[in-house]
Amino acid sequence: MAHFLLVHGSCHGAWCWRDVIPALAAMGHSATAIDLPSHGIDPTAPEDVTLDGYAAAIHTALDRPSFVVGHSMGGYPISRAADLDPTNIERLVYLCAYVPWDDHSLVDMRLRAPRQPIMKAIAKAEDGVTFSVIPEHAREVFYHDCPDEAVDFALENLCPQAILPQATKVTLGERYRSVPRSYILCQQDSAIPPEFQEEMAADFPPEDVIRMNTSHSPFFSEPEGLARHLDRIAAA
Question: The pTM is what?
Answer without folding.
Answer: 0.98
